[in-house]
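User: Please predict the structure of the protein below. I'd like the answer in structure-token form so I can feed it into my own downstream comparison script.

Assistant: Understood. Taking the following sequence of 140 residues as input:
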Amino acid sequence: MADNAVQFELVSPEKLLLSEEVEMVVVPGAEGDFGVLPGHTPVISTVRPGVIHIFEGGAVKTRIFVAGGFAEVTAERCTVLAEEAVLLDDIDRDQVEKSLQEAMEDISDAGDNSTERALAEQRADSARAKLASLDTQTYQ
């Protein structure tokens, strides 16, 4: 591995989605975004819904929406275990807005069923985070 690169791996529950050497990766941690460069101090963090930014040549090369998960960072590697991951460019705004509307209806229909309500609220939160990610291009 090059001294000026960090190995980045993105893993979903189904499979390894990405494994490559990158200049820097910015992860949406629970306490705020954090950048990972070679030599980073080891850390484990929860990941909030948001966008992972992968940098090459001093600019964002790839943006990936993650719905949450965990990140493990070492001096040589950053591994994100994501509940859901999708390239930001592949997100269909109309489909996400429809999903949000359906989730909101399911919340209303859940009544006293706390399990159904919690699942619907989780879907609504994920849809809101996707829409916010589409509207915010933090790192350019």
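That's the full token string. The CA atoms of residues 115 and 124 lie 14 Å apart.
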